[in-house]
Structure formats: structure tokens, C-alpha cells
Protein 1
Amino acid sequence: MKILHIPCLEDNYAYLIIDESSRDAAVVDPVEPEKVLKVADENGVVPKLVLTTHHHWDHAGGNEKIKKLVPGIRVFGGSLDNVKGCTDQVEHGDKISLGNEVNVLAFHTPCHTKGHISYFISSKGEDPAVFTGDTLFIAGCGKFFEGTAEQMYQSLCKTLGSLPKTTRVYCGHEYTEKNLRFALTVEPENEQMKQKLAWVKHQREANQPTVPSTIEDEMGTNPFMRVDLPELQNRVGCSTPVEALKEIRRMKDNWRG
Ligand code: GBP
Ligand code: ZN
């Protein structure tokens, strides 16, 4: 499979996923359908599926338009999330196939929104990929608009944290540089974070994305995924993973970097 980034709006990413054997394609959060369809056209594919991570307009706001531009396209989205233009509601564990070789598995990852879905994509002989919308960002996580720290802990550290370490992580926004600068205020001596920040600055200066990461990388550099570590809990004055997650989110919400 091939995965292409499509920068949209200020700092959003839509993605085009192509099954090369059948030339079938899916798009994740196509908020600017014309941009996405241009990339699809350049690659000789017409998308058959839309995978919507959550109901916010900067993710689902292009669904009605892409349905007009691509008649028959199916629009997937979380059943608890009131996704615009949704034709197929998905629940945790639902499977969708793309072409002959690509399988999509839906995971309910609530908290940023109630019905947020992350899509895990696999194809034989390749490292899998997960599209995490605004639940897991590279070195960060989404704001808790419609859920609790308990839910975010389950979504981030259990559901996404149990995926294979080599899983490539594709998130909904380019927030990595700011996230890592914040992360270093929590763990100033984390060498892996420092190295990643240097790479991220280099990428951004060259106008290149910092996505994808991997689950393994996130375990080393994402403070919100590191809350099981007692030393991190101590550092933020907490004694459980959920308390630490809540506290680090509160710190980030108040941080003016
Ligand atoms: C910044 O600090 O750089 N631009 C600001 C942050 C996701 S988008 C903007 C922000 O708050 N982003 C959201 C978030 O979760 N950020 C994580 C973080 O700052 O650590 N959105 O566009 C946001 O979800 C939205 C749309 C929100 C509709 C509510 C509704 Br309703
Ligand atoms: Zn959002």
C-alpha cells in the first residue's frame, strides 16, 4: 500500500491510501476534497471510501462535498459522533476491506470526541499504519473535549499502545514541534526527545511533514503515552497513570510556549 500526505487548511493532514494491486483508494478526513481528488487523479485512482476520524469540521467538513464530487463514495464514521455525510457507521472492531490486499480495522478511541475512531490499516508483508485523528498526535494528544482522563488513558495507552511497535502513526495535525518543546518541559533530560526535536526542526525548515512516527517512537517521546512510568508520575506529583495523564493535559492546556 501507498500512503500520501495531503496538507489541508492551516495544519491539518488528509491522507490518501492506495492499494496498488487493485488501484482502489481510501481517504482519511478529506476536509478539502478538491486537493485530495487532485492527488488521487495524479496517482490514477478514484477514492471509494472516506474514513472519518471524528465530527469536528476540520476533519469531517469535506464529506458532503466529496460525496457530490465522487458519486457512490462510502463515508465511514463513528456511531456516537454525528459525522456529517456519514453513510456507514462503525463500531470498535469493525472491519472494512480496501481492494484485494488492504484491511482496515476500526478502533473506538474516545475522549477528544465521544465517538472518535482510529483506523488501523494492514497489508501482508508491510508494517501496518494507524490513522489517529486528534486522539494521538506525534509527541502529544488531543484536548479532552468530550471525555475523561480515564477514557484517554484507555484510548492512548491501552488501545493504541497495544498495537505492534512498528505501526506507523499518521495523525490529524502537524503539531509535533510544539508538542516536543512542551514534552521537554516535563522530561528535560530525555535524550530521545531532544534528538527527535532536532530532526523535527530540520523537517519543518524544509517544509516536510514530521508524520509518520511509530508506536515505538511515541513510547519513548510522547509524555501522554509514558504515564505508566513511575518516574514520570513522580515528576508531575501523581501516583497513578490516569492522574498523571490528567495533570500533563492540564499543564499543556496552560502552557504558553
Ligand atoms: C496551538 O496551541 O498550536 N493551534 C493551537 C491548538 C485539535 S483541533 C489548537 C487546538 O486546540 N487543537 C486541538 C487539540 O486537541 N490540540 C491538542 C493540544 O493543543 O495539545 N478543532 O479544530 C480542534 O479539535 C475543533 C473543531 C475543536 C471543532 C472543537 C470543535 Br466543536
Ligand atoms: Zn478535533
Protein 2
Amino acid sequence: MIGIFDSGLGGLSVLAAIARALPRADLAYLADTAHVPYGSKSDGFIRGRVAAIGDHLAARGCRMLVVACNTATAAAVGELRERHPQLPVVGVEPGVKPAAAASRSRRIAVLATESTAKSERLARLIAAHAQDVAVHIEPCPGWATRVETLHADDPGFSAEVAARIEPLLAAGADRIVLGCTHYSFLTPILAPLVTGRAELVDVADAVARQCLRLAGPAAGGDGRLHLYATAQPERLRAALPALGLGWLAERERGQPALARI
Ligand code: DGL
């Protein structure tokens, strides 16, 4: 079984990609809904949550862990690997490398939570893969919460998104990196804004390919899905069709469970 987690619903975009790439694998998804959003919290707090969630999933039989959250990866993936040296651990990082490689204008922008935006890990990623490219980092406070509350489709929010994206396009960015897994679910708002001027870069499929490479025995199973949340687990299942992932609900076995961690 593969354990996948995020602060809330965002990691479902990664879960969906993994479920497509590894159709037989049993999957456990944990949303830390009692503590979402992570993006405005301290690294120490996030590290504590990641340690507790990793222990919880490992105790439930997960043989690989996927940190389906850029914020948690930036703050805590190193510690998680040290804590579970026997398990493959896959993190999610903003797609700076593919964006920089593909950019013709040599200007890219990264949309991220406040925490990821100021992280050393993102700075190192840019230094390693985008030295010859101008990289603009755009923190987007409140966006993950919009997805979380399934209230991304109101005109006021669309206008706020447009106001953030327009200056990036005007400055010539031709790749816009979705540096938070929640932002995949904002594609219906973002795609029309950038069409013809830039492309959105989402790493969910690349993360799924990495899982395919590393899963080994964790890839086996009957294609079951177990859902866990640290608050309101039933909301997690209800969110699947609302986010266009109704097909995942068919894999679910049992009721979504409350994780008391
Ligand atoms: N989905 C997460 C990420 O990829 C975190 C969003 C949040 O909780 O602030 O960064």
C-alpha cells in the first residue's frame, strides 16, 4: 500500500495521477484537515505534523510514503526520510526544472504558498535548475483555502486570480508553475487566463512516474482506496466528485476514517 498525504484536498490531484499510473496499487490518502492550511504555518509545526502522519500511515501498512504537498516537502521531507529509512519517500517540488527547460522567453513564474515561497528548498531548486532563467516567485495566500472550502468558483476570486497572473504574463513569463498541489484544482480559472501566452506546469504526472519507479512491493494490491482525515472525514469523500474525481470514489473500501493524530 502507498500512503499519500497533504494538508487537505490538494494532494488529491497527486493521488489521482498515482491511481492512473498504478491501477493495482492499494492507496491510502490522508488529509490533515484539522490543520489546513500549512502554507501560513511555521516549519517546526509542519515538521511535527509530517512526522505524526508518516508514523500513522506506516503503522497502517504503507510501504511507500508520498508527500503530496509542496509546503510539507520543503519543510520536512528530509526528516521524514530519516524517520523511515526503510521506506521509499517521494516528495513534491514545484516544476521549476521542466519550466526552465521549456521556457522560450527565459522567464518563468512560480505560484506557491507563503511557506514554500520563502523556503530554502525552493531557492536551491532554482539555483540548481534555473540559473539562466528569470524566476518570479508569487506567494498566493488564501488560494489553498479557496480550494479547501470548494469556493473557488466565485467571480470575486476569479478576479483576484486574474490580478495576480496578469502582471506575470505582462512581464513575459511563458511558464506558470503550479507550486502547490491545491492549485491543480484552479486550472479551470487559470487556463483561460494564460491561453496563448503561457503554459501551466503541474508535476502530478511526473510524481506518479517517480512512484512507479520506486514503488516495488508497495505497488501491489487490489486497487483499493482508503481515505483518512484528521477532521470531517466525510467531507473528503464528498469532495471527490466536486473536484472531478468521482471515479476515485469507486475504488474506495469502507467509510472515510477519522485519523486521531
Ligand atoms: N497543498 C499544499 C502544497 O502543495 C499546501 C497548501 C496549504 O495547506 O497551504 O503546498
Protein 3
Amino acid sequence: MKVLKFGGTSVGSAERMRALPALIQGSEPRIVVLSAMSGTTNALVNIAKLLFEGETTAATYQTEILRQHYLIVARELLTEPEVAAEAITHLDSAFKTIFNLTRHPLSASGERVILAQGELLSTLLFHRYYTRMLGQEAVLLPALDFMRLDKNDEPDGDYIEKHLAQALAPHAGQPLFITQGYICRNANGDIDNLKRGGSDYSASLIGAAAHAEEIQIWTDIDGLHNNDPRVVEGTYPIRELSFDEAAELAYFGAKILHPSSILPAAKHGIPVRLLNTMQPEAPGTLISTQTGDEAIKAVAAKDGLVAIKIKSSRMLLAHGFLRSVFEVFERYRTPIDMITTSEVAVSLTIDDSTHLAEILEELRSFGSVEVDEQQTIVCLVGNLIQENNGSAWLVFNALKDIPLRMISYGGSPNNISILIHTSHKQRALQALNEGLFQQRAVAP
Ligand code: ADP
Ligand code: ASP
Ligand code: MG
């Protein structure tokens, strides 16, 4: 079994959907995981936002605009009028779900139902096209039957494995399954999702559950680049990354992958290939247990962090202080991303500031507390084993004109993290590109 995930741009128009069949051919069975068509989830987020703000007329209007867009795509893709008409009946029932939710004040669970429609629509259209227009065999598997969160809102691997197997069982010998990325049910059985960009995570979870031999993430770029191509010019794709390196880059901002998406594949040792639907012949990036031996391979940056410094003379020569600090974050279920300590102070960063006020209140009982918002972690990933000396020098030399708030080195053999103010991000990424990767960028 192989799992192939296609992102928003890869299914973003009738033309893009027509290009998929050529990419999903193969002798072994496949599960194709689709995102919503590009722009759809943003439009649904906006509709929900308007409803939360009480802007019902605007929300209804935006829903109708989206519906008209889908009617056009359906007619363009499904050129047999009878096939189009059938699909439009299904499209209309998805839109009716949204229109019905505009009639009453929107709840959080209503919002999640709205957000789920994008993947339901894209898979419906592609499945109809593949089976009815091309006459090929494929089974549409409803992700809501097997993708599940546990009571901690984490994917429930055992449930997913068992229920995916049950969903596949009646279709022995089927060459192709099509399912939705991103959407799932939560522990209460209500419709939920894996957060923005979550279709990558779906693909990895499905790959792990199906014991797939490979997971392919098809997107609009030729693999994971050495730096953020949205911010820096002259980036290039990295051919090979280890699971750990890719997981760090995904977690620390490489948008090509959902932050958690490498973990299920890594746990089961399933290689992940990042490929470009616009350039299918390009080798892309292979993520596996193997890696190249460059000291620094790539840089990613994650915005929206808050740095907190707790200064206390109680820390001096004391034990148990850090534990008390960490317990505060644990109580509020707030992960810490980066940490540095001195004998009298500890600085750490969080990216979830939901409980910031309560956390600060508790931390003040330990000593003085300083908070810096709008921070960005710049994460450098590679083979940073001690023997590869000189890498840190290259990094700090490149960043000599940038004020650095925190530095973390040695936490793992493949990461150096640096905290800067977000306003310096572009300059920092550009400087790192020039200082670390320029020769490679010229001659990859
Ligand atoms: P999809 O809709 O297929 O999931 P995404 O937009 O989520 O695609 O991810 C692909 C985009 O990620 C690229 O177009 C690129 O702009 C962005 N990106 C950010 N950092 C990186 C990186 N290090 N390597 C490759 N792409 C990156
Ligand atoms: N459609 C969802 C989003 O836009 C999930 C995904 O595309 O990965 O976030
Ligand atoms: Mg994505």
C-alpha cells in the first residue's frame, strides 16, 4: 500500500484535478488523501468568522459565492451533464449544511462542521471524475469513519488503525481509495480537524495505520527547500533528510509539512517523499532513516512565540526550581519550545499564549518575570555533531548584525535554535542563506 496526499493547489482547479490520474497510477493499492481545493478552507474560515461576528448576510453571501465557484468547477470537470447533475446534488447538500448553520448563532462545533466541507467537496468531485468520467475503479472512503482524536485531542492511532482496516476490508483487490485529509472526529464523535495544513498529518497517520510502504506528499514545490522560499530568494530542494531533521523543520515552520506530520511515519519507519505535481519528474525530497552528511542542511523559522524570563535568587544553588517552573506550564497544558538557563534566571518560549495571563500570574510567585512578544525561532537543522566543528561560528558570523534574544545548541545533534524579534526575520534568513548556503545555491 502507498499513501499519496495532494495539497490544495494540486486539486485547486478542474485542470489540476485532471492532472492527478497520471500521478496516481501504480501496481500496488493506493490511498489518495486530498486537501480542499486551494482557497476553500480560507473561505470557510472567513464564513465562520463572519457568523461569529453576527454578520449573517455577509456569511450567506460568501457561502453563495463559494457555491457558484463549485458549480463552475463541477461543470468544467464533469463534462457529462448527467454526471455533473448528480455531483451538483451532493455539492448542494454540503452547501445546505453551511446555509443551515447561518440561521443560528454559530457554536465551536458548528464552525468545525463548516471547515470540514472543503475536503468533502474536493474528494466528491475527484472521485466522480475518476470513476464516472474516466471509468476507473476507486472507492471513496469517508475519513470521518476512521480518523479520530482521543480525549487529549491527539490522533488515536489504535482507533485509526482498527477502523481504517474495517473500512478497507470489504474492498479486497481494489486498486484505489480516495479519502479526505484534515477532517476527523473527536473523542465525543463530533466532527473536528487536525488544524490548518492537517492533510499532511492525515496522510502520515493513514500511512502508519495501513502499514504503507511509502507516503508521498504532492505539493506545489519540488521538495523541502534549504530555507523558506516565501522569504528568501535562491533556495534549493534538499534531496535527503532524516526523520528527525524533517520533524524539526516541520515543527519549526517549514510550511510544506504540517508540524506533527512526520511523527507517525517516523514511528513506523515509513519513508516520506515530497513531490511536485507541477514537475512530477523532479526527484523532490526523501525523508527516511538515511541522511546526507552536510553540517547544516536547512533553516526554518516559526513566528508567534512569546519569550518569558523568570529571574529568581531562589534558583541559586537550589534544586527543584526548574521543576516548579515547568509544572506551571504543565498545569496549563502549554508546551515549551526553547529553553536557556543561567544560575539565576531561566528564559523559555511558548507559542500557545491561550493561558499566558494565568501562567505569568503563577510565575510571579517565583521572582521577577519579563515577557517579550512577537518573537521568532530560527531553527538550523543538519548534522551538528560535535565533530562538525565550525558550524556555530558560521551561523553567528552570518547573524552578526542581528540582535539575538536566546540561543539553544546541543539539545539534539541536529538543531541550533535562535530566538530573534520577528521584525528581524527576513534579514536573518537572508543573511543565513548568504553565509551558509550560497555556494550550494549556485551549484546544487
Ligand atoms: P499544500 O497546499 O500542497 O499543502 P502548502 O502551501 O501547505 O502546500 O506547502 C507548500 C508551500 O510551503 C510552498 O509553496 C512554499 O511556499 C512553502 N514553504 C515554506 N517553507 C518551505 C520549505 N522549507 N521548503 C519548501 N516549501 C516551503
Ligand atoms: N484544507 C486544510 C487547510 O487548508 C488542510 C490542508 O490543506 O492540509 O488547512
Ligand atoms: Mg499544506
Protein 4
Amino acid sequence: MIILVINCGSSSIKYQLLDMKNDDVYDLLAKGIVEKIGLELGMHTYRPSGKEKVVKELPIPDHKVGMQLVLDELVNPVSGVLKSFDDIEAVGHRIVQGADFFSGSAIVNEDVMEKIRICCDFAPLHNPAHILGIRAMQQVLPSVPQVVVFDTAFHQTMPQYNYMYGLPYKYYKDYHIRKYGAHGTSHQFVARRGAQLAGLDIEDSKIITCHLGNGSSITAVQDGKCLDTSMGFTPLAGPIMGTRCGNIDPNIVPYVMKKEGLSPDQMTELMNKKSGFLGLSGFSSDVRDLNAKAEDGDARAKLVFKVFTHEIIKIIGSYIAEMSGVDLIVFTAGIGENNARLRRRVCENFAFLGLAFDYETNAAAHSDAIISLPESKIKVAVVNTNEELVIARDTMHLVQESEE
Ligand code: ADP
């Protein structure tokens, strides 16, 4: 089944075209990104498998024009990988927030669209863009079934004692304020893949998955289900991130707003876009830049790594306590897959529990590998996350079921 996977942001469309033979066997036909939608000059970078990359700069006023550009490239006689649009059998969309409406993926209909719309309140930066993407796709491919896959769905198994906040209960009832988590598709994927690599039965195991990228979250996965996760009502909670502050004393919020005369929107922007690695270091949100500076002796760049590392250690420690043990710790995403030093520093703290670290394998690992020694009581894995594959699998299953 040929499936187009879409990850729509407010000014970008990331996509992959996959030919799914079954859950594990597939061909990546093409991938790409449409950027700077709505700006004077947009950009489309298209990478067909086995053919030359195509980069085009042109005005892309809205998502519909962006989607049309993608489709035109996919069927282009020179750069294309399909004969016609009709070859696309389904479209799968990544949706950041599905709140407690969705504990799994769903085929798009108007009821589903209304629920995604209600969830815009909890993900104002993401969900409106996803809606634009679905509507644009409905216009350009009206007869193709569309599926939505939620970043929050995997976390819906969290017990209530882990998703409630200590606020008056009425805010939970009236405004749906609770922990929802995020990156669920990634946590689910890497927990399964990590268990496979470590020879564990996912249904009978205690796993901690660390998705460490520009946004970072850590999840306790017990017997294949999410027990707890570090992101919260929104993806701002958890460890310090690229530009997000992560967990802070909530009283800091009104204090800074009063001191600086900030509106709620300005404070939200400060915490989401100007804090974290960027805010603390004063120069970059990117770990590669911070590494270079830290190596030159920059004290604040070094401090960022210390804060990040220790927050990760504290969250992992709390999840080990919560599950009364851990069989496997998995590292994934940009930092988790590529930063061997961070993995080493985190894992060294758990030597007292019998974690025996494989320094040599760790130093070279960027993709699926076990980086603990055979005698280790806690196994450690690096896994390349693949959220697009999960979206394609779910899309394939739902569309096949609906056709039966
Ligand atoms: P996003 O959350 O935007 O998907 P990523 O998972 O791509 O983010 O992670 C981005 C972070 O990963 C950045 O801090 C970047 O420096 C780091 N990173 C990505 N690739 C590498 C690499 N090859 N080597 C070192 N760090 C990397």
C-alpha cells in the first residue's frame, strides 16, 4: 500500500512516501520538506530515492499550494516516483494533541476533525497547522482516505494518579487540565525496537525511553504500556530543552510577568522559544554549537550540559523507583542517537544498580545498538526513532480494516 505520511507545521510540511508491503517491510520512495509557507519566498526540498535531489524556491502562499507542489513532484516525469496521484492509496497525518479523545489512531471524518479542533486549545502552535494540512489534502486528493495518528495516544494508558495535577479538581473537569504527554509515537516505537534488540518481551518488561531532541521527553513503559511521562499538559514540561524551559517552579511565571510587564502570550513565548539551552547559554539551542563552545571552556555551555544531564538522571531515577526496577533504558532522537558523551554520563550514575556500560560500543553508536555489556543488570540501547513508519503502519491497518 502506497502511503503518504504528512507532518504539518504552521509554516512547513514534512513528508515521506512509503510503499508498505507489511508492518516491517517497506520501501521509502521519496521524502522532503516544504518550508517558509506564507513568506515571500518558500522552499521545497524533495529527495526521491535513487534519483537526484530537487530544491525549488518559489512563493508558497498556503498549505494547499504546498501539498500540490509535493504531489506534482511525486508524479513529475523526471524526478517523480509515481505514475499518477491515483497510486497514493492513503494519507497519514501526525497530530500533536488528541487529549483524552483519542487513545489510538483514527480515520478522518467530521467528528474527528471537530475533536482535533477542540484540542487546538492545548496545542495552539501545532493542531491548527495539522487541520490546515488535512483540509489541504482533502482538496487535492478528495477520494483518498486520511488517517490521523496522535502523539498523545500512547500515553492514554497512564493511571489517573500520574496524570492529575494538584490544582482544584474543577479545572480538570471544566478545562481538561491534566498530563497528556507527547512524542508518544516515538516512545512506543523505540520501546518495541529496544526490547527486540535486548531480547526482552515487551509485554513483561520495565523500559525507560529517552527521546532527546530539540524537544525532549522521557517515558516509563511497563509491560508495553505508558505508566508515566515527563511532558505534561503541553510539551513544555520535563527536562530543559533546546528553547523550552522544562519544569520550573510555577510561581516564577507570575513573578517574571510582573517584573517584566509581560502578557500571557509573551510569557508563553519566553518559556517556549527563548529559554532552555538557548536561554541558559545565551547563544544557541543546538547541542552541536554548545559542544564546540564547551570544548573551548565556555562555562555556560558546560552548565547547560550539567543541568540537562542531571535532569535526565533525576527523571530516570524517579521512573526506576516508580516501576520498582528497570530492564532497559533506550536513547533516541537527535541528541539521544548522536551524543555518546551524554549517554555515558547518564548511565554512569546507574552503575550502583549494576548497569555495566560498554564504553567502546557507545562511542561509535549512532543507530540501533546495545551499549551495555552482556553482564549488565540494566540493558541500554540506542534506537533510531521512526515516527513516519508508525504513522504508515497505523494508516495501513485502519484503511485495510475499513475496506474489509
Ligand atoms: P527535533 O525535536 O526538532 O526533531 P532532533 O531530534 O533533530 O530535533 O534533535 C535536534 C538536536 O539533536 C540538536 O540539539 C542537534 O544538535 C542534535 N543533533 C542532531 N544530529 C546530530 C549529530 N549528528 N551529532 C550531534 N548532535 C546532533
